[in-house]
Amino acid sequence: MTEFERIVILTGAGISAESGIDTFRSAGGLWEQHRVEDVATPEGFARNPDLVLGFYDARREALANAAPNPAHLALARLEREFSGDLLLVTQNVDDLHERGGSARVLHMHGELKSALCQSCETRSRWERTMLDRPPCPVCRAPTLRPDVVWFGEMPYQMGRITRALEACDLFVSIGTSGAVYPAAGFVQEARANGAATLELNLEPSEGSHFFSESRHGAAGQLVPEWVDEVLRG
Ligand code: OAD
After folding, report:
1. Residue 125: how many CB atoms within 10 A of its CB?
2. Does residue 208's CB lie within 6 angstroms of at least one atom of ligand 1?
3. Ligand 1: does its nearest atom lie under 6 Å from the Cβ of 11?
4. In angstroms, what is the span from residue 161 Cα to ligand 1's centroid?
5. What pLDDT digit, counting tens, does each position of 53-66 carry?
6. Structural domain includes residue 1
7. How far is the CA of 136 from the centre of ligand 1 (A)?
8. pTM
9. Which residues are catalytic?
10. Is 102 within the bounds of a domain?
11. Domain span at residue 91?
């Protein structure tokens, strides 16, 4: 694990599990508590905006009680100390990578602490509730929605991610079930371009067989160990 110069890392809900944030597909996870169609689709939002705004308000509030864990901290250390190119892509809408010290995080599924105005399309930093229909800070219309990518919508910055996957020599997937595309396909894109591929996950993901190496265990342990390996050089 020493010879790499261009690393792309993809993280998912599993990296925040030890911080107390619910994952989606584990027993008792978010998708057992709520129907995806109701809270994570544009159609669900059109049908019942109060339900959707309340769901994301509660998830945003829950962030206040969560703190970054050793896996987030280790990736921040990697960003500071790795001399090559590093792109950290997360599917997570929490802000634990940033609070762990990562300065450059690409949130492909959006962010809980961002609002998207449906009138002027401005994305604004947002820490408060939305259920009370606050005005957009830019155009003043009461048309904010969570700046979260729902099923049927295009994830953010796919062009940049694709270019990084084409150029990387190592792709690392951390704490993601590999159930949701396009992120689930990143391993195959990286492999097709000759990169080594490593999975760090509690259990084999759905796409585990695509990786050249898989390590299974808690991110809070596996990620710091792997970062140590890379930085030891
Ligand atoms: P999932 O809930 O589908 O998967 C989480 C993965 O993390 C599982 O494979 C777990 O085994 C693993 N895991 C759990 N605890 C862990 C730990 N302590 N250490 C390491 N791994 C652990 O979450 P995602 O793969 O992130 O999208 O889900 C992908 C997307 O599906 C989300 O971004 C969201 C969701 O629907 C949208 O809402 C658009």
Report:
1. 10
2. no
3. no
4. 19
5. 999 999 999 999 99
6. no
7. 31
8. 0.97
9. 109
10. yes
11. 6-21+68-109+155-232
> Do residue 75 and residue 127 come from a single domain?
no
The candidate with the shortest Cα–Cα distance to 72, out of 106, 96, 105, is 96
Give CA–CA dist 141/70, Å, rounded: 41
Q: Which tens digit of pLDDT belongs to each residue from 128-152?
A: 999 999 999 999 999 999 999 999 9
Domain boundary among 98, 120, 148: 148
Total residues belonging to the chain: 233
* Block residue for tokens 């009138």: 119
Q: Is the CB of 13 under 6 A from ligand 1?
A: yes
219 lines ligand 1 (CB under 6 A): yes
Q: Which residues pair with 145 in a beta bridge?
A: 116
Task: Report the nearest-CA residue for atom 7 of ligand 1.
Answer: 14
What is the distance in A from the centroid of ligand 1 to the CA of 13? 4
Do 192 and 226 lie in one domain? The reply is: yes
Number of neighbours of residue 147 by Cβ within 10 angstroms: 23
Quick check: CB of 24 below 6 Å from ligand 1? yes
Ligand 1 closest atom vs CA 155: 39
Residues 61 and 90 in one domain: no
Total domains in the fold of the chain: 2
